[in-house]
């Protein structure tokens, strides 16, 4: 699989999930798709709630799917949103991605027409705190 076709596959999965988003409040559907260490793709969408803070981002849904389906590493993630601006992951989701990714993991940001820009996770979340911090402090095994 070429890099381009791998990204196309993530884009298609994210768009399909985005089409199923539950967004009665923001009307801003988002889709996310992850490629895991085995090459499998896991997608999610945002799911809002009448109690607004209980809403979940698309990235959180995709990560949940990956873990439930047996994936353990994010090799690449693509996020697709609407509008003219880049739909970059919120701060909380950058940290959620961080748990399962490496500094160089690609984060592709797309609009309806395709990928607009690609970042590394480290660009979006520099000097991040992660599992390594706990390991070196002897806090987790
Ligand atoms: N949202 C995501 O799902 N992912 C992002 O990367 C940015 C924002 C959602 C949260 C909320 O349902 C809606 O977009 C508007 O903020």
UniProtKB/TrEMBL annotation:
The EC number(s) this enzyme carries: 3.5.4.5
Matching PROSITE patterns: CYT_DCMP_DEAMINASES_1, CYT_DCMP_DEAMINASES_2
Reaction equations catalysed: 2'-deoxycytidine + H2O + H(+) = 2'-deoxyuridine + NH4(+); cytidine + H2O + H(+) = uridine + NH4(+)
CDD domains named among the record's database cross-references: cytidine_deaminase (cd01283)
UniProt keywords, alphabetically: Hydrolase, Metal-binding, Zinc
Binding site for substrate: 46-52
GO molecular function: cytidine deaminase activity; identical protein binding; zinc ion binding
Function: This enzyme scavenges exogenous and endogenous cytidine and 2'-deoxycytidine for UMP synthesis.
Protein name per UniProt: Cytidine deaminase
Organism lineage string: Bacteria, Pseudomonadati, Pseudomonadota, Alphaproteobacteria, Hyphomicrobiales
């Amino acid at each position: 699989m070429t890099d381009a076709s791998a990204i196309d596959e993530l884009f298609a999965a994210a768009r399909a999930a985005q089409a199923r988003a539950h967004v009665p409040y923001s009307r801003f559907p988002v889709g996310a798709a992850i490629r895991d260490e085995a090459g499998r793709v896991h997608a999610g969408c945002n799911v809002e709630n009448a109690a607004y803070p209980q809403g979940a981002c698309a990235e959180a849904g995709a990560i949940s799917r990956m873990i439930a389906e047996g994936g353990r590493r994010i090799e690449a993630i693509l996020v697709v949103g609407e509008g003219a601006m880049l739909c970059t992951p919120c701060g909380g989701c950058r940290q959620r991605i961080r748990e399962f990714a490496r500094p160089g993991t690609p984060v592709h940001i797309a609009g309806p027409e395709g990928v607009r820009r690609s970042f590394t996770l480290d660009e979006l979340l520099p000097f991040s705190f992660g599992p390594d911090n706990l390991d070196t402090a002897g806090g987790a095994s």
